[in-house]
Design a protein that fits this description.
Blueprint lengths: L12 H8 L28 H5 L1 H7 L1 H5 L9 E8 L5 E6 L4 H8 L9 E5 L10 H4 L6 H6 L8 E6 L4 H15 L5 H18 L5 H14 L15 H15 L1 H9 L12
Parallel strand pairs: 1-4
Antiparallel strand pairs: 1-2, 3-4
C-alpha cells in the first residue's frame, strides 16, 4: 500500500504511476502501455479497486456464477453513487439491466420534494448528461449507456431537478477540471480555463451572444467533433471531460443559455472574467 499523489489527475493510470515514483502526477504518452512498461519501467497492471473487489467472490463461486448475474455484456453487480436532487441518496449495489426510471423511483425514492426530473449525469463528472425525454426508460448497462453517447464511468450518478440552473452546474464541473488540469497539454490547460471564464461571464450577466458559439469552438479544439467517446488533442481524457457539460447544455438546454445571455447586462470595460 502506497500513498498516492492526492490530485484528481493521479486517477489516470500513468499519472498514478508517476506519482508512485515520486514524480509530478502527469499522464504519460501511450504507447508504451503500463502492461508493457509501467512502474519503474516494469510491466504493471493497473485496475480499478471496484474491479479487484469482485475477485474474492469470483474465486469462491466461480466465473460462470458471476457471468450469470445480469445481462450478458454487463455481468455482475455495479456500485452506483446516487446523489443530487434525489429523495434517498446513497451508494447502491445493483444488478445492471434496470431502467433509469426504476433506479430513481424504486431505489432513490424519486426526485426530491416531488419536483420534475430535468437531467442527470450517468457516470461521474466526465460523462455527457442524460435527459428524461430520451433516456429515462433505457437500461442501466455499460453498453446501453455507451450506445446513448455517454459512459458508466465511475458510477457517480448526479440527479438534477427542474429548478437546476444548468449553466451554474456546468460551470461548477468545468471549474473543477480547470483546477485539476496538470497543465501539461496546451489545449487542456488553456481550453478549460477559457471555458470556465465564458461560463462565469454568462452566469454573472456579462455573457455575449458570441460566447455560445465560442464555447463550442473552444470545446472542439480540446475534443474535435464533440463526440463521445472523445477524440483528443491531449495526452489524457481530462480535457475532453470538461467538454462534456458544455456539449450537454448546448445540446439539450441551449435555449436556457441563450435566454441567460439575453437577460444579462452589457459587458463593461474593466469587469473581471473569472
Amino acid at each position: 500500500v502506497h500513498l498516492g499523489g492526492g490530485a484528481y489527475i493521479c486517477g489516470e493510470e500513468t499519472a498514478l504511476l508517476n506519482s508512485l515514483e515520486g514524480r509530478r502526477g502527469e499522464p504519460r504518452i501511450k504507447p508504451p502501455f503500463p502492461a508493457v512498461e509501467g512502474l519503474y519501467a516494469k510491466p504493471t497492471i493497473v485496475n480499478n479497486v471496484e474491479t479487484i473487489s469482485n475477485v474474492p467472490w469470483i474465486v469462491a463461486n466461480g466465473g460462470a456464477s458471476y457471468a450469470a448475474i445480469g445481462p450478458e455484456t454487463s455481468a455482475g453487480t455495479r456500485l452506483l453513487s446516487l446523489s443530487g436532487h434525489i429523495t434517498k441518496p446513497g451508494n447502491y449495489e445493483i444488478v445492471q439491466g434496470m431502467t433509469w426510471r426504476e433506479l430513481f423511483d424504486d431505489l432513490g425514492g424519486g426526485v426530491r420534494d416531488g419536483k420534475a426530473l430535468k437531467c442527470w449525469i450517468p457516470g461521474g463528472a466526465s460523462a455527457p448528461w442524460f435527459v428524461p425525454s430520451e433516456h429515462l426508460d433505457t437500461p442501466v448497462t455499460i453498453d446501453d449507456i455507451a450506445k446513448n453517447g455517454s459512459m458508466a464511468g465511475s458510477g457517480a450518478v448526479v440527479v438534477m431537478d427542474e429548478t437546476t440552473n444548468v449553466v451554474a452546474a456546468a460551470h461548477r464541473i468545468v471549474r473543477f477540471f480547470s483546477h485539476e488540469s496538470c497543465g501539461q497539454c496546451t489545449p487542456c490547460r488553456e481550453g478549460t480555463t477559457w471555458l470556465e471564464r465564458m461560463l462565469w461571464r454568462i452566469l454573472n450577466g456579462y455573457g455575449r451572444p458570441m460566447d455560445l458559439d465560442m464555447l463550442l469552438d473552444v470545446a472542439d479544439n480540446i475534443s474535435p467533433g464533440l463526440r463521445w467517446p472523445p477524440a483528443q488533442t491531449t495526452i489524457c481524457p481530462l480535457g475532453p471531460s470538461a467538454v462534456s457539460p458544455i456539449r450537454s447544455i448546448m445540446t439539450y438546454f441551449r435555449d436556457e443559455v441563450e435566454a441567460m445571455v439575453a437577460a444579462g447586462q452589457p459587458m463593461e470595460e474593466g469587469v473581471p472574467v473569472g
